[in-house]
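Title: Request for sanity check on Alpha-1,2-mannosidase family protein prediction

Description:
We are preparing a figure and want to confirm that the structure record we downloaded matches what your pipeline produces today. Could someone re-run it with the sequence below and paste the raw structure tokens into this thread? We only need the token string, no images.
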Amino acid sequence: MKKIVLLTLISGVAMSFNLFATTQKLLAKKEQVTNLQWVDPFIGTGGDGHTFPGAVVPFGMMQLSPDTDTVMRGVDPQPEIYKRCAGYHYDDHTIVGFSHTHFSGTGHSDLGDLLIMPMVDQVLIEPGTAADPDSGYRSRFSHDQEWASPGYYGVELLDSNIKAELTTTERAGMHQYTFRKGEEAHIILDLTTAIYNFENKVIWSDIRKINDHTLVAYRATNGWANNRQMYFAIEFSQPIDSYEFINLDDNRYRCMGCLGKEKHSTIENKQVKEAAGKAIKFVASFNNPTAKPIKVKVALSAVSKSNALENLKAEIPDWNFAHVRKQAEQKWDGYLSKFEAQGTTAQKRQFYTSLYHALQAPSIYQDVNGEYRGIDGEIHQGKDHIHYTLFSLWDTYRALHPLLTYIAPDRVGDMVQSMLDHYQQSYDKMLPIWSFHGHETWTMIGYHAVSVIADAYLKGIRNFDTKLALEAVLATSNSPIYDAINEYKEFGYVPMDVLPESVSITLEYAYDDFTIARLLEAMGKPNDAKAYFQRAMSYKNVFDHSVGYMRGRDSKGNWDPEFNPEEAKYMGPFTEGNSNQYTFYVPHDVKGLIDLIGGDKKFEQRLDALFDTHLSDEMIKEHEDIAGLIGNYAHGNEPSHHIAYLYNYAGKPWRTQERIRQIMDTLSSDKPDGLAGNDDVGQMSAWYIFSAMGFYPVAPGDLSYAFGAPQLPSIALNLSNGNVFKVEANKLSHSNKYIKSAKLNGQVLKLSFITHQQIMAGGTLLFEMSDKPNKQWGEANADRPPSLSN
């Protein structure tokens, strides 16, 4: 960390007493500048990064953030929702309001629960459109008057001259609105909005006024997850002077007061305390709004309104906005201090913002009393662990979950136990595939929860039910109901006439089976492990020697007659990719793949061809997720993330060093569009953190990390066992991108990989960098990263 530099002005005669006294006070405080300063939540909010800039704490259930467009009932045309999967996009110029749940970096949209928006004088109950913001309660804004930092977001709403500020705890958030004009302030609570690409998402909602400060609300939605339920406790910092309940379906609303009569028939009834329906809104009105800021506290619960009230009382008991913000910053500082990185300002901004994004999920999904809503829809008690949600496992098993074993190992066991909760509660007795908020979406392929479980267990993280974990892993990998597992076991591959994306599924099953074998081996079950090691070789069954690529085949063994290695066809043999990319998806046995392709030289040539051969738009037009292209390499999508590291396995680590620098220089920056594709719940960010350090987990579960090349001059990782693992890159520069030599704790390192045990032991990994490649380093077979075949 940098210490604040105190500039002491010394004159030739004497120093003033006041300056001396001030200096002494500052020196006594020993104030430090923390890594918070390097985080820019706007990185990734442009392009297709799909991150949000709002307030959140590490692993928080509450993600309180602005929405620049949402799907509205009866509004046409609908917004380009893929661009706004997180509710916010940097290109937009109006804000609809602030909602309390968001995804970070996903390629799919949902959430956006309970939108809140302040306004002045005139009550508007529809949001209006981006083309005509004056038609509704949305407001124009400017990035010049917008601020975000860990745990905080602020913006000037230009149309109403209101300063809006947000901060959060794990389960609650606080809004602070400073009104600079107007005789009356209004705050709308809109339960109808959605971050999703169809209307009529709300199944049912209700809102009830408890007293002149407090409301409770509920809504159930159909979206990516069906019948997803959320409860809210809402409290205002001052009494509500007048209010309205609005039910758009009935084309009427009940009110106390006379707001908005010109648009709706009105039933005035001072006894009305609640409203229910599919299109419910509430407007709270306050007199003399410029006297002091109006604050709103909101807490979430997936269980009940009473639990939401309990969460609110427990986490934000008072109205001290600055204190809540400070607490959020302290929580972030605790995690951001896990690393001490040196480099340019842009490099540190990218590094620490990546760390910030990597710490947002999986997120807490449990109330302060321990209750949560399970995958079965029932209420459960997390007796001995915190229950987590949001497992985007096709993305995050690769680098995010391995990263969490170093920076949040105390949470990893609870995350695994949460997966086991899912297994026990699911009708199908399956571990999660892509789940959130007590729902399984069945999105993407593989059964990658087994990779996360095996990697944690093999690293010594075992504070979960290991016996149940083994049961769940075996049951999931043999499930008769999931994605042609029976055919996979029968044929040794998934036939393309049985299931689309068959080649990708086969390859990912094979990797998952490798991790199960490793787990069984570590649990003292060598015979069972042997069967899974054999299953892990199934990748060979979809490699067509006649063309040299992974290729679809049917249940009779016939190869795909329409094969084109560059085409990424929707519902074709590959998942969000093509054969060029997926042929390299054998992370657990790269040596075996090299042999299939024809040896080291041919393998290197194939890697070069992947990076150097232009991929036309025509070949990927059916997949908007394929982004961040260097030739056929698609950094914006996960199947490519390990590929640059594969040169190591052919004895050419210097080629990996070239490719990593190429990716870093061309596909990442510290700008809003600085991510090459969806951050995918932190996976892209985790790739950056590992790659900046100079190594990457090609095959989580084998406990080795293939070397790339360090991208920052120094990065220290403060480990949970008290050790510090430091990576230093001497003479690193734009031209000095190659590793000349390496030493680990003073000992010459010939291997082109490092192990988990070496990292946890702490010490210093020292790289001497050069502008010329060392073509002998890591060339010998014995010096290459491990593969199943050797």
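Thanks, this matches our download. Residues 480 and 784 are 38 Å apart (CA to CA).
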